[in-house]
Amino acid sequence: MESAVKACGIVKSYRMGSNSIDVLRGVDFEMRSGEWIALLGSSGSGKTTLLNIVAGLERPDAGTLHVDGVDTGRRSKPELNRFRRRHIGIVFQAYYLVPELDTTENVMLPALVDGKGRREARSRAEELLCMVGLKERMRHRPLDLSGGEQQRAAIARALVNSPSMLLADEPTGNLDSRTGEQVLQTISLMRKDGLAKTILMVTHNSDVAALADRTVHLKDGVVQESA
Ligand SMILES: Nc1ncnc2c1ncn2[C@@H]1O[C@H](COP(=O)(O)OP(=O)(O)OP(=O)(O)O)[C@@H](O)[C@H]1O
Ligand SMILES: [Mg+2]
Questions:
Q1: CB neighbours of 76 closer than 8 A, spacing ≥ 6?
Q2: Which of 23, 27, 188, 189 is deepest in the core (most CB within 10 A)?
Q3: Domain layout of the chain by residue ranges
Q4: Which CATH architecture has domain 3-226?
């Protein structure tokens, strides 16, 4: 089956003064198209670092990375930005909605940045907001939404350009367990509807991991797989 992500020998260190922190020490990791993978590991093990590298937000010091068949190491920053906009949706623990814009405008934003017209962007945003259960919240500003609603708006925003992959970094980390459950159900639903086909989700929660097809552990700078 086609690979959505193929990472070979990914190395990443951070320098802090004269010290170097070797976070990723040769990560080999593959995701098939359509797979949902839960990425686990203790705090500081490099989960966010790996997710950011897959997203093209950070570059590895060594190793190769193919996303949707594209060798991202060979792309310039503007090319990577365009690639990310179209291929990858990202959801973080914090929602990062723009407070001055209403919910619909927030969801439209990546579509407008990608050059879509306002009418097309708005209708796509409204369609997605209905799907994530925010039909009655489209004109609200982010601060007038609950945390769970803000995260569902962030999921709609991540999917507005119909990416093939959703990357999520502890998407339920700021939510109580019931609200977190609703956010996960939303992600499952999006996947069933053919959006968010391939999912890489960082989590500390084994219940969340149980939803995934496969669990991957980061430990001592390398990936350790378990069924
Ligand atoms: N920009 C940076 N500069 C220096 N060190 C960094 C930077 N980003 C991450 N680190 C360090 O790299 C290590 C891995 O960080 P990372 O955020 O990837 O961990 P994580 O597994 O996501 O942890 P958590 O579960 O707490 O979110 C940590 O020791 C962190 O302090
Ligand atoms: Mg992290």
A1: none
A2: 27
A3: 3-226
A4: 3-Layer(aba) Sandwich (3.40)
17 lines ligand 1 (CB under 6 A): no
Look at the block and give the residue holding tokens 């430990």.
Answer: 219
The alpha carbon of 15 and the centre of ligand 2 are apart by a number of angstroms equal to 18
Tokens standing for residue 119 = 């009418």
User: Tens digits of per-residue pLDDT, 8-66?
Assistant: 999 999 998 899 999 999 999 999 999 999 999 999 999 999 999 999 999 999 999 99
pLDDT digits (tens, 9 = 90+) for 87-109: 999 999 999 999 999 999 999 99
Residues 6+ apart with CB under 8 A from 73: 59, 60, 64, 65
180 lines ligand 1 (CB under 6 A): no
43 lines ligand 1 (CB under 6 A): yes
Q: Residue 49: CB within 6 Å of ligand 1?
A: yes
CA distances 11 to 23, 28, 43, 75, 225, Å, are: 8, 10, 18, 18, 18
Alpha-carbon span 102 to 94, nearest angstrom: 17
What the block records as the tokens of 6 is 């193929």
Q: Which amino acid is at 119?
A: R
Nearest-angstrom CA–CA distance, 208 and 177: 10
Read off the pLDDT of residues 126-172 as tens digits, 9 standing for 90 and up: 999 999 999 999 999 999 999 999 999 999 999 999 999 999 999 99
